[in-house]
Input
Amino acid sequence: MINLSFEDLQQYTFESGFDSEICVLFNGHKYFFYLKYNENYNKIVCFSNGAIDPAKKKPPLYQRSTWKDEFKTSCLFIDDPTLHNTGLKIGWGQGTHDSFALEPIAKVVEVILERLNYPVEATTFYGSSAGGYMSMYLGILVRGAKVIVNNPQTNVLNYIEKSVNQMLDVAYAGFSKEQVIDEFLYRLSIVKAFEQHQYIPPILYMQNRASVVDMKDHVKPFRDALEHLDLDTHNVQYYFYKHPKEGHSPLSKDQTIRLIHHNI
Output
């Protein structure tokens, strides 16, 4: 692992073949990434984390990093600092009330892209479930990047109530749920984030129709809300499929890699 301040990162030179963890200190907080860089590839895919099991492995964690050698792209894997030393299994990149983690993460990603000489347009964010939520949000913040998500949450508050309340108790300690909704809803809803930033990134939204809860609590309210936005919503494209046995689980590794390569 290399440890860099945000200022040092802005001057750092990554050699082709770089394959390691990076810890960036930014405004007093540490953010962790795993980068595999190959200068021969002209695109980069950035992966966000979904739910984890802290009993099996402690953060920082980089889901799907074992896939890195199977992509014909450079790969950046993004850890969720919300899960550090909290016992949480799922965090949606919320960080804390005074440091919304996805915002500094987006700034770090932009600097990494610049240091690797990747234009934002050569960048794709991918994730499933909570990682899908994080990837859509990062696509809003890193303007010009593409987004591919599989069975994502589109509104954190519509997820399992116990998990949501546990996250809110940690990330927004001292705030009631009503206060969080009143002050920070743009951090918890992708549609509210679209409104907040007046921007919708190019999104490929892959969804298993057999996941009834996802369809009811995330797909339908998301699509309904988009109809009432005063923004161009044509950037959102849907790929629906039906795999009854898989439910909320994402597509298989081989299918995912193939779809990402086809759509970046």
